[in-house]
């Protein structure tokens, strides 16, 4: 494997975990807000 390939794979490896964690937080936040909006009174 060349140096460039090694650098690319290391960057992808180190970037994967924060992306997975932050996207998980975003999905949970969106679903939570959607569920909370279902229960609020629409006649305001």
Automatic annotation (TrEMBL):
Keywords: Membrane, Transmembrane, Transmembrane helix. The chain crosses the membrane at residues 12-36. Pfam families: DUF2374 (PF09574). InterPro entries: CHP02808. NCBIfam families: short_TIGR02808. This is TIGR02808 family protein. It comes from Photobacterium frigidiphilum.
